[in-house]
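[Automated response] Your request has been received and processed.

Submitted sequence:
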Amino acid sequence: MREKSKLVMFPGVQQASTAAVQNAVRKGREWAAGRKLVQMVAAKKWTILLVAVGFLLGRAVILESLMPFAAAYFAVLYFLRREVSFWAGLALVAGSFFAPVPSPAWIAMELAVVFWMIKGLESYEKAELSFAPLLVFTSTLLVKLFGAVLANMLGWYDLMMIAVEAALSFVLTLVFVQAIPVLTMTKKSSGLRNEEIICLMILMASIMTGTVGWGIYGMSAEHVMSRYMLLLFAFAGGAPLGASVGVVAGLILSLADFNAIVQMSLLAFAGLLAGLMRDGGKMAVSFGMLLGTSILSIYIGSQSDVMASTYESLVAATLFLLTPRLMIRTISRYVPGTQEHVKSQHEYARRVRQVTAERVEQFSEVFRQLSKSFGEFNGAVEAVKREEEFNHFMNAVAEKSCQSCHRRSMCWDAKFYQTYKLMTEMMTSVEEGRKPTSKEMPKSWTSHCVKPQQVLGVMAQQYELYKNDRHWKKQIIDSRQLVADQLSGVSQVMEDLAKEIKREGQTLHLQEEQIREALEGLGLSIQSIDIISLEEGNVEIEVYHLFARGYDECRKIIAPLLTDILGENIAVKAERYPERHGEPALVTFGSAKEFEVETGIAGLAKGGDLLSGDSFSTVELGNGKFAVAISDGMGNGERARLESSTALTILQQLLQSGMDERLAIKSVNSVLLLRSPDEVFATVDVALIDMYTAKTTFLKIGSTPSFIKRGTEVIPVTANNLPVGILQDIDVDLITMQLLPGDTLIMMTDGIYDAPGHAVNKEMWMKRIIQEISVTEPQAIADALLDKVVRYHEGAIVDDMTVVVARVERHQPEWATFRWTGIPRFERPRTVS
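Generated structure:
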């Protein structure tokens, strides 16, 4: 047993240590209390802000006597921030004490009516934010009418002003519904609509109305605040937003103070100048605002007004220069059209792609683990089950033949191992299908067992059941293996998809701006540019434009220019024009293939029938590869056609999904094995041509040789393996060859290849026939080869015949690339591995 360690301290050291610990604990508690206070203040900051806004709105008055802000603000806060509504209501009443026309009783009455109307709706479970404007309108109208009746002021002018105030309360409620979530930053969207921006401006201008009458050293607080707000939005959103803020703020301030009617034009002009100079930074924006206010002040006001306006502008500019850039950047991020908003959109899209890629990778790993567990299960079970099934077989034989035998105990109790060994040896003859006679049986067996023929018969009967059981269990194991292979293939496809998503998530807006500047330098007006991929050989760029259909600027100008910038051939991949006039058209540009494939097909059914057992396919897989495939089903007619077409269809879909070629062939083989208990099979001959390098991969399963004609030379391509659908485990041979421009690939079924019969060297005969064909067009070559074979048989069609010809040529762009001075090539981002 270990001895516990002991810590020994001298008394003085122990006292000092205790004091240090107590001091550390005390400081920790003070730090925790301070942190808690900071957290409480941070949590209450929006409460303090909303209460302060309530105080200013309670003080705000427009058109000398109208106070439509209080009820609207209280109702919206009650629905959106109920925990703050009580304190905000008190602030509204308190602010009305300091209004130019104090009326706290009427404000409190309006708030009370709104509150009890909402409570009444809540009792019926009908209280919703959509009812707030109507509730505010009703409460304002009722309270003002009640006040007019008490004061005996029921003239037409008085009634009209009451209706105007109620209508303004209704409109302001709608405004506050949009603006308060933006003000408190509880709106989670990455951008604001124009309506939300205008509503926020109206709210802030209404808040400034509550400061009317406040001033220091001849400067008005509302003028300083309005110009400060103007600088913020002009620097964040440019001239349009600056002018809009100036108009809205000036209009509402002029309603609060008739002497400030000039503020609308002054602030609008100042906001325009400030926004136009935003590229120069804070100092330039401040100078633009100062210049705008000074020009109109000199033109409109007196000398004292000019000096007061100048001081107000200087104070606002000073506050603006002291404002942290983080605050301005936050505003810009929510204003559509700004660089910060575009960056936030790109960042948001990048995060979404990253999360999506991680999810896809997780699913890929799940499928990989499932595939692994299926494969391990099959391998472990097969070895264990074989021994268990054999023991079960021997027990069944013993039970049926020895149960009623009088020597049972002697054989299976006294001589168990000897009996078991002899019965195992007799299994050999049963497995070979022989039933030995009494004379042919081993003497050891006849001397040991009193009824050997009966035991042998039972053994043969049970062996048949055992074989059937083994067959179906093997089918189950094969099905599991197929599932394991398919899960592995799906996992690989999803992993490739995750890499593709990550690659597309790269930051490419700098390259987009470079392309935009290059196109605008040519005088082309582009709506927007989205770069999906810049990977070499897999470029994809989407361009929105308003060109007319007839001029075709995309093929003649944009594609050649992109070719020069990117350093590889770019072509128009797709065009989508809008249904309505005036909307932008979408054009997709992509990497032009370095090579083109032209095909030709010719075929005949056996005996001149309509339905051939051969199938073929020539299709672009979408991943830069072109597939030429041919399949020959067993026999002729409809059944053979079904098998061959099934093999090609499944193979094509698997290859298009991105599955590995070997796994795709094995999957087709497993499907053909499991889809029918009959003996069916089909040959598969596939050539995958890379459209960018002309490197070609041949997958030949039980098929005849293919031939490549290169000038006068004919090159055979052969592989020796069985067709799919015969054996569970097949060997997939992938043959890779480099094709050259002008090469012609000829693929055929055995009806063509076996034409000369067994007495002739078929490969040499076919090479000579191909060399003798003088035409170069793929369709002409296919027709000529089929015609020669039919003529060789004197017009008889002895088997299904199909020949597919593909000719590889270098791609020639429709329009030549041109060089535009001043447009550099940009570097591609590194591909995500």
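Summary generated for your ticket: The chain has 25 helices and 16 strands. The chain has a mean pLDDT of 77.
If you did not submit this request, please reply to this message.
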